[in-house]
Amino acid sequence: MSGLPTLGAVNNLLVPLLPGTVSIKAGTPVPGGPKAPALIGIYTSDDGKLQAACVCTYALVSFCGAALAMIPAGIAKDGLNGQIQENIPENFREILNIFSRILNHPGAPHMSFKGLLTPAETGTPELTALLAKPAGHLDLEITVSNYGMGKLSILMAG
Fold it and tell me: Are 122 and 48 in contact (CB under 8 A)?
């Protein structure tokens, strides 16, 4: 699928961004939707059409968002149940905004990060269709040293 980033591209983006050791490997799909324990970053084209989504476990949001601002790991671990503390979600939004660098490619519609949705906000028909049948996906396990492991699924629309 054109526009789907590689594991290497995600690695090249996150390793210099986060402190400590970051390891990334292939993972399993992260379910998203109104009842799923995950947050979803959405990316739209300039005309507002949904182009991609990043389905993120609470652990990924907590660990990467905390690591970016060097918030103690203990505070990040409190977010594993979905009660993410401090400014961690805002930090993670910045990571997702930077992700647009690896989602945009010449010849494809330009994409911009539009927001990080809670499970209750994920019931739109367009997003439901993308979650059910993406044109392409990349599923990853991302571990940040001293914090922990979270999962990410990058989904591309057709």
Answer: no
Supply the pTM of this predicted model.
0.94
The Cα–Cα gap between 136 and 140 comes to 14
pLDDT tens-digit readout, 66-81: 999 999 999 998 878 7
Q: How far is CA 112 from CA 69, 82, 155, in A?
A: 23, 25, 14
Identify the segments of the chain with pLDDT beneath 50.
Answer: 1
Question: Which domains are delineated in the chain?
Answer: 7-156 (3.40.1550.10)
Closest CA to 4 of 143, 99, 93, 92: 99
The sign of the dihedral angle between the CA atoms of 148, 37, 97, 66 is: negative
Contact in structure between 109 and 116 (CB atoms under 8 Å):
no
Distance between CA atoms of residues 127 and 139, nearest Å: 18
